[in-house]
Design goal:
The structure holds three protein chains of three kinds. Chain A has a domain of 231 residues. In chain A, 76% of the residues lie in helices and 0% in strands. Chain A has 17 helices and no strands. Chain B has a seven-stranded mixed beta sheet, with helices on both faces. In chain B, strands 4-1-5-6-7 form a five-stranded parallel beta sheet, sandwiched between helices. In chain B, strands 2-3 form a two-stranded antiparallel sheet. In chain B, helix 8 links the parallel strand 8 and strand 9. Chain C is an all-alpha fold. Chain C has one domain: ABC transporter involved in vitamin B12 uptake, BtuC (Orthogonal Bundle). The longest helix of chain C is centred in the first third of the chain and has 32 residues. The chains are: A mainly alpha, B alpha/beta, C mainly alpha. Chains B and C meet through helix 2, strand 9, helix 9 and helix 10 of B and helix 1, strand 2 and helix 10 of C.
């Protein structure tokens, strides 16, 4: 992609839409000042990056069941590095801890990128092991890596402190400032992923491999190379998301490698719309909203009042209920709406003038 | 296509805002004291016990008029806000606490069960300076990792250290810590068991622990006391993956080292399986110690007759009737009357914490968080369901920062065949502050006990 | 270290391997016939354990008899799962199976949590606490019975496949379903029976699991992954491979636990799996794999 294309893209509608969306997102909390809303939105945006990174890997035909490894490595690395640099800088200036300011914000951005890079480094190694594998084999091996990495992290506890866990230094104040950091990072990463998947030749190669790997090989695509590239890019952004996540929840420990964190991006991407740029974002919104809303004390109290009598074995029906809802949504989506919630929109529009234009495209797929 | 994207995003934003707006609707206008119960309500068996105990305490306090707040010149009821941490992993344990605390929804927090989840979510209380009475999480770092606790023995630049002294002062630990019960186990081994089984050699104690914040905390504490007190005890260590379901091989490895007793560090849903696998499968006929959080109906029912003559370390025994403490008897009666099930120890401590909070708020005369913190620090109440070393509830301000200095004791289980139940009796120590005739019976070795050897 | 310690460890490896083999066999025939992997298979094991528990507690049934009653119930559940979900996505992207399974896992686990609560349970068998004392090894009766049950189930299963008409039809389908269809085999019926059989085996494994270990609603996940790792080791679709893989996995895990410590058990087993797959992407015995 050359400069001309870039300038063309910058002037395109797609770019404006993405910029517009994130600008709106960045401003929304100024009008709705509820903290719950801000927490919810921050989580959704962080997971949007994470789900998008999974989605990019899936667009090359590789479904990972162990992406939490990269979320976790990014989180651990950036929390550890951020902590030591902050301490060192504070010691240099003779202070107790690094004051929040330009230096700390720069540090936050720096460790986020470092977290991504370290995660991508590991992604390269794991990707090398995975390029020959497909479908369930790949799923199993990536899952296996998440088990192994967790064990290694607890074995190297003197280094990682992953068993007790630890709180990363505060570099960007919580609330709106942190939210802006998250939104800006999401904007940059999702834009880059959009470009890779839709504007670069890379994306074309990914789709070719996803469509039919043998065929892709025949037409001269170095499938192993492109699969590896997808792995590295995806794990970079997963690591970045991990960094934001641990600085947001203010803690990191080995449970970040848990299977639930590996499954989350998959569920988000599938519900929203696999292979699309906006799909994972919608999926993240749905999944996190369902989970967080049903976990609200007022909601779970209401649920318990209504349903508690039927289920005496459990004190809070909210969380299991939200997981059942998510499971049902997932199954229904895969069966009835294999292109995700976003395809609703195509359907809604296809009754209009675009019907003719769309039809051949869909057949090709 | 681009228009569609925009439309979708707008719809999404509208949906989320609608939800937020609904959330903004003020739920109550009357003055009340909002106490958040932080517990793994839906994901861990003990969460329900904590939730029931909290509700019982709130009902009792509210029935008696509520809490008197001088600044308001009136009594106000407690509104219990259940904060479900699901499985207590930090990922699940932090977000709900963050949500409630940062929306200004709670005046005070009580609870916390697992060490890992609690170490994580207390950071939110520290950051936001909300008083948090932690009633679980025996890992000592909970209150010691700040400057007041000398960073739990770590350096101040260690990533686990928390340098925010003011923030740390809002954390209170109404629970035994691993150091308390590590000491009880090694002292019991040294004073009671060693003369019986190994009078002229080192006592061989094995510790089998789950490899998480809780298990490693107990392991460190056990090792610490053996070294500090210079006890003639040899420690055999073995850790396992918290997700494991089979333990025979770990126990086989321990049996290979011929221990005199085995300390098992896990939760009430796992410990019985481990003891059963040890006794029945591996055939390691020895004394097994279960740690204090196992004082729960799940433990008793899963262990069944296999538990005969096995040991349980305890910080409180809500099952005994008649009890060594009248308060426990009342609690047992009220709890079973309200819920028709037996209470567990984790709920019992949570129950107490509500009365500690009530006392502190009344003395503070306001809900101002710093004032409540100061009042909590000055707490001086008679012991309730937990026995403390001084017989009173006082939060330490020394190196055992904001800890309660609770006393743990050893109980031996006996299978009562006609009643089809497992019963526990206190075998050590002989006395406790403010309680005469504390010890109820003598410790005996199990029938088929085989002593270890070097 | 005592040699008896190592022998004992091998015994544990085999004993644990047995329950996994049962689960893996179910996963495996479903794969063999339908070319489909149900990652929610372990949740059928979990449901099997709970149903067995319910039957023993509410009706006072003998635990092993209860397993016999549980198997058809879970088989029906398996049929429902196959009809309502997997059948609808057969032939689409392979990733869809993983997605559906994940949805099913969330549904099953949390429905079980709502119905049976969050406290761990254990099934009390008539041989509770009875121990078979061999000179250097003592082993519980329940474990011996479990091994016997597994062997019986596998033999019965083998006979069914080799000697009955349905079994032959299943074999034909597993080789090439279009050909089988041409020969007049009702593919949909075969799929249904296969899924039912797999589910029944999982229920049996669940009952045995519940007798040997305490269990809660989350126990399905690890056994599925292990069961799946086992059939990958042995090669997807190969029954012989599943048995060898099961024993290998169980032994590797237990030896790693013995020599490296329990925290390494599953990590080493997975490392083994990864190495096998890197060297032989279709598993040790795998020829038919996709």
């Amino acid at each position: 992609m050359n400069t001309q294309k870039i300038s063309q893209f910058v002037r395109s509608k797609a770019f404006l839409v993405i910029v517009g969306c994130f600008a709106i997102l960045a401003l929304v909390p100024l009008f709705i000042t509820d903290n719950f809303f801000l927490t919810l939105l921050t989580l959704i945006i962080i997971f949007s990056i994470y789900a998008s990174s999974w989605n990019l890997l899936a667009s090359s035909g590789q479904g990972s069941l162990g992406h939490a490894v990269f979320l976790g490595i990014g989180g651990f690395a950036s929390a550890m590095i951020g902590g030591s640099i902050a301490t060192a800088l504070a010691a240099l200036s003779g202070l107790d801890r690094l004051p929040i300011g330009v230096a700390s914000v720069t540090l936050q951005v720096l460790v986020m990128i470092l977290g991504g890079l370290i995660s991508a480094g590991l992604g390269l190694l794991i990707g090398l092991a995975c390029v020959r594998l497909k479908a369930w084999y790949l799923a199993m091996v990536t899952f296996g890596f998440s088990v192994i990495v967790e064990s290694v992290s607890s074995q190297l506890d003197f280094l990682t402190h992953g068993i007790d866990g630890f709180a990363p230094a505060t570099l960007v104040p919580k609330g709106y400032p942190f939210y802006i950091l998250v939104t800006a990072s999401a904007f940059a990463s999702i834009l880059i992923m959009y470009l890779i998947m839709n504007k670069f030749r890379l994306g074309l190669a990914f789709r070719a491999i996803h469509g039919n790997e043998a065929e892709a090989k025949m037409i001269g695509i170095n499938t192993a190379k492109y699969k590896l590239i997808a792995f590295v890019i995806s794990t970079f952004f997963a690591g970045m998301a991990g960094s934001l996540y641990v600085y947001f929840i203010r803690y990191v420990d080995n449970s970040i490698f848990a299977p639930a964190n590996s499954f989350a991006p998959l569920i988000m991407a599938v519900i929203g719309g696999l292979g699309t740029v906006i799909g994972p974002i919608i999926g993240a919104g749905i999944l996190i909203s369902v989970q967080q809303l049903l976990a609200l004390p007022s909601v779970s109290e209401g649920l318990h009042g209504a349903l508690g009598g039927f289920f005496p074995g459990i004190a809070d029906v909210g969380p299991p209920l939200s997981l059942i809802i998510i499971g049902v949504i997932l199954v229904l989506i895969v069966i009835f709406m294999p292109k995700g919630v976003i395809s609703l929109y195509d359907k809604f529009n296809s009754s209009g003038e675009r019907e003719k234009k769309k039809a051949p495209e869909e057949k090709k797929k | 296509m681009q228009k569609k994207l925009l439309a979708i995003v707008v719809v999404l934003i509208i949906a989320v805002s609608a939800v937020a707006a609904w959330q903004l609707v003020p739920q109550t206008s009357a003055r009340e004291i909002r106490i958040g119960l932080v517990a793994p309500i839906s994901g861990q068996p003990l969460g329900q016990d904590m939730s029931r105990a909290a509700q019982l305490a709130v009902d009792e306090i509210n029935a008696a008029g509520g809490i008197y707040v001088a600044a308001w010149g009136a009594y106000a009821p407690i509104k219990l806000i259940s904060i479900d941490t699901v499985d207590d992993s930090p990922g699940n344990a932090v977000t709900p606490v963050k949500r409630e605390v940062e929306s200004g929804n709670v005046d005070l927090l009580i609870g916390g069960y697992g060490s890992a989840g609690t170490l994580a979510n207390e950071v939110i209380a520290i950051d936001n300076k909300v008083p948090y009475i932690i009633t679980g999480a025996s890992n000592a770092l909970v209150t010691r990792r700040g400057p007041q606790g000398n960073y739990g023995g770590l350096s101040s630049t260690d990533s686990q250290a928390i340098t925010d002294a003011d923030g740390m002062s809002y954390i209170f630990h109404y629970c035994t810590v691993t150091y308390d019960y590590g000491k009880t186990v090694v002292d019991f081994c040294n004073e009671v068991m060693k003369p019986m089984v190994a009078p002229d050699r080192d006592f061989r104690l094995a510790i089998l622990y789950r490899n998480d914040a809780f298990g490693t905390g107990v392991e460190k504490a056990t090792k610490y006391w053996i070294e500090t007190e210079n006890l003639p005890i040899m420690l055999i260590e073995r850790a396992y993956d918290p997700k494991a379901t089979t333990y025979q091989t770990d126990i086989t490895a321990i049996a290979d080292n011929n221990p005199d007793a085995v300390l098992i560090v896990d939760n009430p849903d796992k410990t019985p399986t481990i003891i059963k696998q040890g006794l029945n499968d591996v055939g390691l006929k020895t004394v097994y110690f279960a740690v204090e959080n196992n004082q729960d109906p799940t433990f008793y029912s899963l262990l069944g007759s296999t538990g005969d003559k096995q040991m349980l370390e305890a910080k409180s025994d809500p099952f005994q009737n008649p009890s060594y403490l009248p308060a426990i008897q009342t609690y047992l009666m009220n709890f079973t009357e309200a819920y028709d099930v037996m209470p567990g120890v984790n709920g019992a401590v949570t129950y107490d914490a509500f009365f500690i909070a009530k006392d502190a708020i009344e003395r503070a005369g306001t809900l101002d968080k710093a004032a409540v913190r100061d009042a909590l620090e000055a707490t001086n109440l008679p012991q309730s369901l937990l026995i403390t070393k001084t017989g009173r509830i006082q939060f330490d301000t020394g190196i055992n920062y904001h800890e309660i200095n609770a006393l743990t004791f050893m109980e031996q289980l006996t299978w009562n065949a006609p009643m089809d139940t497992l019963r526990a009796q206190i075998v050590w120590p002989a006395t406790a502050p403010g309680i005469s005739n504390f010890k109820q019976t003598d410790f005996v070795l199990p029938d088929n006990y085989v002593a270890g050897h070097p | 270290m005592d040699i008896s310690t190592i022998i004992l460890t091998l015994v544990w490896g085999v004993a644990i391997g047995c329950v996994y083999i049962l689960l893996a066999t179910g996963l495996n025939i479903i794969f063999g016939v339908m070319k489909l992997v149900n990652f929610a298979h372990g949740q059928l094991l979990m449901i099997g354990a709970y149903l067995t528990w319910t039957l023993t507690v509410t009706f006072g049934l003998n635990a092993y008899l209860a397993i016999v009653f549980t198997m058809p119930i879970v088989a029906v559940l398996g049929i429902a799962v196959e009809r309502l979900t997997f059948r609808r996505i057969l032939g689409t992207d392979k990733l869809n199976e993983i997605f559906i399974s994940l949805g099913l896992i969330y549904i099953f686990e949390n429905v079980a949590l709502l119905i049976w609560g969050d406290r761990s349970k254990q099934i009390i068998s008539p041989f509770n606490n009875m121990i078979l004392d061999l000179s250097s090894i003592s082993i519980t009766y329940d474990r011996v019975v479990a091994v016997v049950v597994v062997v019986l189930a596998l033999v019965a299963f083998g006979l069914l496949i080799k000697k009955t008409k349905i079994g032959l039809a299943m074999q034909a389908t597993s080789q090439k379903d279009t050909a089988a269809q041409l020969m007049g085999v009702n593919i949909e019926k075969i799929y249904m029976i296969t899924f039912a059989l797999g589910a029944a085996l999982a229920a049996c494994a669940g009952g045995l699991y519940g007798i040997i270990f305490s269990f809660n609603y989350q126990i399905g996940a690890m056994p599925t992954i292990i069961g799946f790792a086992i059939i990958i080791l042995g090669g997807l679709g190969s029954i012989k491979g599943a048995i060898v893989g099961g024993l290998l996995y169980g032994i590797a895990e237990q030896l790693a636990t013995l020599f490296l410590g329990g925290i390494w058990g599953s990590a080493v087993a997975f490392a083994l799996l990864i190495v096998v797959l890197i060297v032989r992407p279709k598993g040790i015995f795998g020829v038919k794999g996709e």
